[in-house]
């Protein structure tokens, strides 16, 4: 329902920008592609591709190299590759038990990455911001990389206001209305946009772009540790909502006779499927974090009946909640991330069994279950994708020499 | 991420079609508009609007009349109005206790409508198709209206495969894998497209276009009778899913200790909030349909404590399920349709109280609750909107004289 304004001149500049965006998205998502592949994937003409690639190589965002002849007739098509060091993003993650940073180049190359464990009681905003700035300094070397940063993406295990990165609530960090975006932007001192988003939403984005959900339009990404979150992909795009608070699938009330949830409600899904419920069922202390969960998995692999029963019961509750989500979203794929990737070998069967019993047959027939392909780094990689989005949406703004392009645009 | 193909000629025909679509959508949604209003709403130039309106009036889809001068300076802008009888759609609805048909003209004028009660045991496909054809014959007079039909939209209380209108499951009709779309299209004998969709999805569409959700981008439409369904609007559009089976919010498992559901699962939301649960709580026979629910409402209005308690308890369960949906979708608005519109005065307070207790504060702060504006006809009106969609998306295909237009397009 887009009405486009005359005059034609303005329109063709819009089309040029959209076409540049299509090319850069392809290169970013897939890595080096021949000109012929770009023609096929974008639907643009060969001459249009040639001109746009010229602009990208002149600006340093892409490079060209002769293709390796494949023994098929005709001249081999030159290979266009994204230049990872010309435009990089800083990705940061605040998980419940750890902090992480990565520097990611155009095309998705991970240039550096680092993760440090942090105890749960060390979670004031000041401490977290200090730690993240330290991690950022560590990955932002050499200096040319700092200068190439075009954006910062931050994932946090909480409910985040999209407009300014205010963390409305992160019960497992003990945060309520914490101005993370503002404080972190000031402390990092990089003159580039910074965006904060829920980490499960970012995990979903990463799996969609580079992981288990690549090319799939309707996806539920389930993740969590103590808290349980989700990222929903609808029609190939992250589910949008009024303020960015959507996707909190861990807080669907599922058991009126259940436990008090960290959010204040009762019997939310996360009270039955989060790490705490698993540890309780396995007869272990619920304070142990990931290490304690690993011990349950280790015991299960050695045949410990209590650990196996705890995993089975957890899997059945995962299935109950997923049945509802499958009925609501009719997805093609459910990706098990975070904690659930680790549990997957043990819970897959009970989840499938409960889905068969509890989901409507029509949507249940169409859904596949898979573990995350990106593992625990999915949210961090999703934060990088978030930070790349402005460049992917309108690469023309990053082209050099800009003066000449602006002149041409207004001609 | 649209890459547009050269040459320019093809592109400008695409733009013309998109602009015609923008104008026809405005006229269909809002009724008569002055040319100035169309300029403001579509962003098109005055001269572009003049040319496109010329095409629409020549084809009979729109008419123009002098505007009433409003006492403001300048020449009054002519008023453009959609012509309701030039393009009409047939809307049909299969509810659990009734069947309905309507003939709706461009601009949303309801030309004729009719609804008949049907007992629940009179529900074979043959009987329903015969009845619907009878209703259609009744609304398709005079003959010129039959000739003006451009599409048929059908709403049914069930899970429907989008591609061919196969009803995968309609537990409250006792239907499994019933080829409704195919059989109805053959029996009606109208040479136009026919689409079948879940009736709650259609209710949501109607409320979005012409009812309580007009102009709202993120909406949950809750409806039902015995069964409970939902229509979800995300970013201004109906939620899409792999096969059209999404939106089955009545089948989120909410109470592991609850009743067996018609879908085969246990403790689905509809077992706690549908008409049967209300009647059971009010100590009445659960076979009575809408009449029995009306009796409970009548008793409640007379102060009957059992009826009031049954409504209060039902409202609390509505709130529990909605808390989960608010957390998942972060919507701006929840519209109470069908049964819930009738219950609304009694359940509003308990629903709000439970949302305050159970939903996350961040999304709960942003959501409003309202009763349906279109009442029991919302799904029928949504079926009409569904049938109009091809015309709204590309009105150029309906313009006369077509030969001349095709000539121009290929020039």
Structure in words:
Two copies of one chain form a homodimer. With 411 residues, chain A is α/β, with parallel strands linked by helices. Helices cover 45% and strands 19% of the residues of chain A. In chain A, a hairpin with a 2-residue loop joins β13 (228-234) and β14. In chain A, α11 packs across α12. Chain A is globular. The two termini of chain A are 29 Å apart.
Give average pLDDT of chain A, whole number: 91
The oligomeric state of the chains shown is: homodimer
Radius of gyration of chain A: 23 Å
Largest interface: A-B, 70 and 71 residues
Number of strands of chain A: 16
Low-confidence stretches of chain A: 1-10, 402-406
| Overall tally of domains of chain A | 3
Strand order of the largest sheet of chain A: 6-5-4-7-11
CATH class of the largest domain in chain A: Alpha Beta
What share of residues are in beta strands of chain A? 15-25%
CATH homolog superfamily of the largest domain in chain A:
ATPase, nucleotide binding domain
Question: What are the SSEs and their pairings?
Answer:
The structure is a homodimer of 411-residue chains.
Chain A: H1 8-30, E1 33-34, H2 35-42, H3 46-59, E2 62-65, E3 79-82, E4 88-94, E5 98-105, E6 110-117, H4 125-139, H5 143-148, E7 149-156, E8 159-160, E9 167-170, E10 175-178, H6 180-188, E11 194-198, H7 199-210, E12 219-224, E13 228-234, E14 237-238, H8 269-273, H9 275-281, H10 289-301, H11 305-329, E15 333-336, H12 339-358, H13 361-365, E16 368-371, H14 378-393, H15 402-410
Parallel strand pairs in A: 4-7, 7-11, 12-15, 15-16
Antiparallel strand pairs in A: 1-3, 2-3, 4-5, 5-6, 8-9, 9-10, 12-13, 13-14
């Amino acid at each position: 329902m887009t009405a486009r304004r005359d005059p034609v001149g303005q329109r063709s500049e819009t089309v040029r920008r959209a076409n540049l965006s299509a090319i850069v998205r392809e290169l970013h998502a897939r890595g080096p592609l021949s000109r012929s592949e770009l023609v096929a994937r974008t639907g643009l003409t060969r001459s249009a591709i040639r001109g746009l690639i010229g602009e990208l190589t002149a600006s340093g965002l892409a490079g060209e190299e002769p293709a390796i002849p494949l023994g098929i007739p005709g001249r081999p098509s030159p290979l266009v590759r994204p230049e990872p060091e010309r435009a990089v993003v800083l990705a940061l993650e605040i998980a419940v038990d750890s902090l992480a940073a990565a520097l990611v180049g155009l095309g998705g190359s991970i240039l550096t990455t680092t993760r440090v464990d942090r105890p749960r009681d060390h979670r004031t905003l000041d401490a977290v911001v200090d730690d993240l700035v330290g991690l950022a300094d560590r990955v932002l070397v050499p200096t040319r990389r700092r200068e190439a940063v075009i954006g910062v993406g931050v994932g946090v295990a909480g409910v985040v206001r999209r407009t300014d990165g205010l963390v409305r609530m992160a019960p497992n960090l003990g945060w309520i209305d914490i101005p993370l975006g503002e404080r972190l932007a000031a402390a990092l001192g990089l003159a580039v946009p910074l965006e904060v988003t829920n980490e499960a939403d970012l995990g979903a984005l990463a799996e969609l772009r580079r992981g288990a959900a690549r090319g799939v339009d309707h996806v539920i990404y389930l993740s969590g540790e103590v808290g349980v979150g989700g990222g929903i992909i609808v029609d190939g795009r992250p589910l949008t909502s009024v303020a960015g608070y959507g996707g909190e699938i861990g807080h669907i009330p599922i058991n009126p006779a259940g436990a008090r949830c960290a959010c204040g409600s009762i019997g939310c899904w996360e009270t039955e499927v989060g790490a705490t419920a698993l540890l309780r069922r396995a007869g272990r202390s619920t304070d142990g974090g990931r290490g304690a969960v690993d011990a349950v998995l280790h015991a299960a692999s050695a045949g410990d009946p209590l650990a196996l029963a705890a995993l089975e019961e957890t899997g059945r509750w995962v299935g109950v909640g997923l049945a509802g989500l499958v009925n609501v979203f009719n997805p093609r794929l459910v990706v098990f991330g975070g904690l659930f990737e680790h549990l997957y070998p043990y819970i897959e069967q009970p989840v499938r069994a409960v889905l068969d019993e509890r989901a409507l047959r029509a949507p249940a027939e169409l859904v596949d279950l898979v573990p995350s392909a990106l593992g625990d780094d999915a949210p961090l990689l999703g934060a990088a994708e978030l930070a790349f989005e402005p460049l992917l949406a309108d690469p023309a703004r990053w082209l050099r020499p800009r003066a000449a392009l602006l002149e041409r645009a207004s001609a």
